[in-house]
């Protein structure tokens, strides 16, 4: 029996998982089984590490069940999936960051790290951790990572905080944060889906 390719889609700061479920429902025809996952960014009773550990537990469970596992992080979820990949490289086939801030950066005003992470201390912690983890990635690791950002700009996430040098950095013909995430997962998803399918075939 062939392995199933489970794709864990880690949400950003938004709370409406149903939209991500609906927009990725067609992926199954490519052999991809999306699982929308909420980190709980707005739960301030704990820091990021317990949240990350629960995501790692899910990755371990799926892998032990014989599934191929890939990760997608949308917006704030981008840093979370890179952090998870850094700790589970053997269990994860590929990782995609869609419009997610992966480093603190030097931007001021509305694009500053402090303003963009103000609503979630856990998100701030995740970004700081991610910035350190990126420095430890090998060229082989980066070959299993894709980043996606809009050509016409993102009003929330500066482009230079999204990319990872040496990874597959993709630019889509779009603009605006939420719209670009939606298009990346639907009408403009072909390159990302090919990347996921290829990584799954190589892992399987």
UniProtKB/TrEMBL annotation:
Gene3D superfamilies: alpha/beta hydrolase. It comes from the Bacteria. InterPro entries: AB_hydrolase_fold. This is Uncharacterized protein.
């Amino acid at each position: 029996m062939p392995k199933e390719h489970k794709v864990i889609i880690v949400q950003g700061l938004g709370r409406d998982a149903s939209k991500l479920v609906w927009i990725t429902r067609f992926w199954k025809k490519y052999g991809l089984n999306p699982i929308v996952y909420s980190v709980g960014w707005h739960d301030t009773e704990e820091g990021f590490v317990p949240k990350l550990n629960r995501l790692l537990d899910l990755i371990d469970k799926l892998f032990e069940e014989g599934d191929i596992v890939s990760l997608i992080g949308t917006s704030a979820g981008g840093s979370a999936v890179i952090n998870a990949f850094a700790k589970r490289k053997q269990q994860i086939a590929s990782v995609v960051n869609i419009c997610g801030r992966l480093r603190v950066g030097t931007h001021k005003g509305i694009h500053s790290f402090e303003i963009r992470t103000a609503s979630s201390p856990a998100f701030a912690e995740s970004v700081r951790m991610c910035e350190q983890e990126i420095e430890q990635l090998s060229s082989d690791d980066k070959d299993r990572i894709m980043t996606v950002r809009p050509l016409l700009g993102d009003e929330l996430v500066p482009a230079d905080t999204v990319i990872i040098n040496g990874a597959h950095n993709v630019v889509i013909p779009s603009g605006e944060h939420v719209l670009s995430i939606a298009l990346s997962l639907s009408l403009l998803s072909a390159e990302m889906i090919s990347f996921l399918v290829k990584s799954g075939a190589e892992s399987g």
